[in-house]
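Researcher: Re-running this chain for the archive, since the previous output was lost when a drive failed. Same request as before.
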Amino acid sequence: MNLLIVGIGGTFGGIVRYQLGKMISQRAATTFPIGTFLINITGAFCLGLVASAGSGTVYLLLGDGFLGAYTTFSTFMYEGFHLFQGNEKLNALTYIFSSLVLGVIGYAAGFALGGLFLK
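Model: Regenerated structure tokens:
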């Protein structure tokens, strides 16, 4: 049953990530991977919210499933490496370090906010 719950969440998370990333990229006139950046930061924040609520079926559906598929480490690495290959070192470093720092801050903020309202 747990696999089914994670699978359902993952299916929807992957679809939302794909559609949202495509929409953001089409509207952004930049080589900076803003779509993946925003998806990963909002995903970290939302994971903090979900984690603060505890474990169980909701965490499996939303945390492991939806947000596991919504955020994407592999695309993050691909885009960061692609910026280095394109000789956009400043964009690459900005993207990688700001993603890491804001991801941790986003998770902590979501966890703190969730602790205030979800328990």
